[in-house]
Design a protein that fits this description.
The longest helix has 19 residues. With 162 residues, the protein is of the alpha+beta class. It is globular and about 40 Å long. It contains 6 helices and 6 strands.
Protein backbone atom coordinates (compact mmCIF):
# COMPACT_ATOMS: atom_id res chain seq x y z
CA UNK A 1 0.00 0.00 0.00
CA UNK A 2 2.77 2.47 0.92
CA UNK A 3 4.57 1.62 -2.32
CA UNK A 4 1.42 2.38 -4.37
CA UNK A 5 0.97 5.68 -2.56
CA UNK A 6 4.60 6.63 -3.18
CA UNK A 7 4.24 5.73 -6.86
CA UNK A 8 1.07 7.84 -7.08
CA UNK A 9 2.82 10.83 -5.49
CA UNK A 10 5.75 10.55 -7.91
CA UNK A 11 3.44 10.30 -10.93
CA UNK A 12 1.42 13.32 -9.79
CA UNK A 13 4.57 15.38 -9.20
CA UNK A 14 5.78 14.54 -12.69
CA UNK A 15 2.41 15.41 -14.19
CA UNK A 16 2.30 18.77 -12.42
CA UNK A 17 5.86 19.56 -13.46
CA UNK A 18 5.14 18.56 -17.05
CA UNK A 19 2.06 20.78 -17.21
CA UNK A 20 4.14 23.80 -16.16
CA UNK A 21 6.68 23.18 -18.93
CA UNK A 22 6.43 25.60 -21.78
CA UNK A 23 5.03 28.35 -19.57
CA UNK A 24 7.16 31.40 -18.92
CA UNK A 25 8.52 31.65 -15.40
CA UNK A 26 7.39 35.01 -14.05
CA UNK A 27 8.51 34.96 -10.42
CA UNK A 28 11.91 36.42 -9.57
CA UNK A 29 13.11 34.11 -6.82
CA UNK A 30 16.01 36.41 -5.94
CA UNK A 31 14.14 39.68 -5.41
CA UNK A 32 13.55 41.14 -1.96
CA UNK A 33 9.75 41.06 -1.74
CA UNK A 34 9.63 43.94 0.74
CA UNK A 35 11.51 46.15 -1.73
CA UNK A 36 9.41 44.83 -4.63
CA UNK A 37 6.14 45.72 -2.92
CA UNK A 38 7.41 49.12 -1.74
CA UNK A 39 8.49 50.00 -5.27
CA UNK A 40 5.12 48.96 -6.71
CA UNK A 41 3.33 51.03 -4.05
CA UNK A 42 5.40 54.12 -4.91
CA UNK A 43 4.60 53.68 -8.61
CA UNK A 44 0.91 53.13 -7.82
CA UNK A 45 0.70 56.23 -5.64
CA UNK A 46 2.24 58.42 -8.34
CA UNK A 47 -0.27 57.16 -10.93
CA UNK A 48 -3.44 56.89 -8.80
CA UNK A 49 -3.48 53.10 -9.13
CA UNK A 50 -3.69 50.09 -6.85
CA UNK A 51 -1.25 47.19 -6.61
CA UNK A 52 -2.13 43.59 -7.33
CA UNK A 53 0.27 41.06 -5.89
CA UNK A 54 -0.03 37.68 -7.56
CA UNK A 55 1.44 35.49 -4.83
CA UNK A 56 2.80 32.11 -5.89
CA UNK A 57 5.88 30.72 -7.53
CA UNK A 58 7.47 29.21 -10.60
CA UNK A 59 6.77 25.80 -9.00
CA UNK A 60 3.02 26.41 -9.36
CA UNK A 61 1.48 25.49 -12.75
CA UNK A 62 -1.71 27.43 -11.99
CA UNK A 63 0.36 30.54 -11.18
CA UNK A 64 2.17 30.34 -14.51
CA UNK A 65 -1.08 29.59 -16.34
CA UNK A 66 -2.69 32.71 -14.92
CA UNK A 67 0.30 34.86 -15.86
CA UNK A 68 0.03 33.61 -19.44
CA UNK A 69 -3.77 33.87 -19.44
CA UNK A 70 -3.78 37.58 -18.64
CA UNK A 71 -1.10 38.59 -21.15
CA UNK A 72 -2.93 36.74 -23.92
CA UNK A 73 -6.05 38.93 -23.56
CA UNK A 74 -5.81 42.54 -24.74
CA UNK A 75 -8.81 43.71 -22.70
CA UNK A 76 -7.36 42.26 -19.50
CA UNK A 77 -3.95 43.77 -20.25
CA UNK A 78 -5.54 47.18 -20.84
CA UNK A 79 -7.61 46.99 -17.64
CA UNK A 80 -4.54 46.06 -15.60
CA UNK A 81 -2.30 48.71 -17.20
CA UNK A 82 -4.87 51.44 -16.57
CA UNK A 83 -5.62 50.59 -12.93
CA UNK A 84 -2.88 48.51 -11.32
CA UNK A 85 0.76 47.94 -10.71
CA UNK A 86 0.82 44.17 -11.16
CA UNK A 87 3.62 42.21 -9.51
CA UNK A 88 4.45 38.56 -8.99
CA UNK A 89 5.40 38.02 -5.35
CA UNK A 90 7.45 34.86 -4.98
CA UNK A 91 6.47 32.48 -2.21
CA UNK A 92 8.44 29.38 -1.30
CA UNK A 93 6.88 26.90 1.07
CA UNK A 94 10.35 25.85 2.19
CA UNK A 95 11.39 29.42 3.03
CA UNK A 96 10.70 29.78 6.73
CA UNK A 97 12.60 33.06 7.03
CA UNK A 98 11.37 35.98 9.06
CA UNK A 99 11.32 38.13 5.90
CA UNK A 100 8.90 35.76 4.17
CA UNK A 101 6.71 35.56 7.26
CA UNK A 102 6.64 39.36 7.46
CA UNK A 103 5.70 39.69 3.78
CA UNK A 104 2.86 37.20 4.13
CA UNK A 105 1.63 38.94 7.28
CA UNK A 106 1.79 42.33 5.51
CA UNK A 107 -0.34 40.85 2.71
CA UNK A 108 -2.94 39.43 5.10
CA UNK A 109 -1.65 35.81 5.15
CA UNK A 110 -2.96 35.03 1.65
CA UNK A 111 -1.20 31.66 1.45
CA UNK A 112 -4.11 30.15 3.37
CA UNK A 113 -6.13 30.21 0.14
CA UNK A 114 -3.66 28.26 -2.01
CA UNK A 115 -1.90 29.50 -5.12
CA UNK A 116 -1.99 31.67 -6.97
CA UNK A 117 -3.68 34.13 -4.70
CA UNK A 118 -4.19 37.80 -5.48
CA UNK A 119 -3.84 40.62 -2.98
CA UNK A 120 -5.15 44.05 -3.91
CA UNK A 121 -3.42 46.90 -2.08
CA UNK A 122 -4.32 50.55 -2.14
CA UNK A 123 -1.52 53.02 -2.84
CA UNK A 124 -0.80 53.28 0.89
CA UNK A 125 -0.23 49.53 1.15
CA UNK A 126 -3.47 48.62 2.90
CA UNK A 127 -4.96 45.27 1.94
CA UNK A 128 -8.27 45.91 0.20
CA UNK A 129 -9.04 42.39 -0.93
CA UNK A 130 -7.59 38.89 -1.10
CA UNK A 131 -8.86 36.87 -4.05
CA UNK A 132 -8.81 33.07 -3.94
CA UNK A 133 -7.99 32.08 -7.53
CA UNK A 134 -10.18 28.98 -7.43
CA UNK A 135 -13.19 31.26 -7.95
CA UNK A 136 -11.65 32.44 -11.23
CA UNK A 137 -10.94 28.99 -12.66
CA UNK A 138 -12.75 27.13 -15.39
CA UNK A 139 -11.64 23.62 -16.34
CA UNK A 140 -7.88 23.66 -16.88
CA UNK A 141 -7.72 27.42 -17.25
CA UNK A 142 -9.40 30.59 -16.07
CA UNK A 143 -12.77 32.10 -16.87
CA UNK A 144 -12.29 35.37 -18.75
CA UNK A 145 -15.51 36.98 -17.48
CA UNK A 146 -14.76 36.08 -13.86
CA UNK A 147 -11.24 37.51 -14.15
CA UNK A 148 -12.55 40.70 -15.73
CA UNK A 149 -15.21 41.02 -13.02
CA UNK A 150 -12.61 40.59 -10.26
CA UNK A 151 -10.36 43.22 -11.80
CA UNK A 152 -13.18 45.69 -12.51
CA UNK A 153 -14.56 45.40 -8.98
CA UNK A 154 -11.23 46.42 -7.42
CA UNK A 155 -10.16 49.40 -9.51
CA UNK A 156 -9.71 52.78 -7.82
CA UNK A 157 -12.69 54.02 -9.90
CA UNK A 158 -14.94 51.17 -8.70
CA UNK A 159 -14.17 52.17 -5.12
CA UNK A 160 -14.82 55.84 -5.87
CA UNK A 161 -11.19 56.88 -5.54
CA UNK A 162 -10.54 58.11 -9.06
Amino acid sequence: MKRNLLLFVVIMACAIGASAQGLKKVYDETINTKTQISSALADAASQNKFVICQVGGNWCPWCLRFAQFIVDDAEIVSLIDKNFEYIHVNYSRSDKSEATAETMKRLGSPQRFGFPVFVVLDAKGEVLHIQDSSFLESGNSYDREKVLRFLRCWTPQALGLK
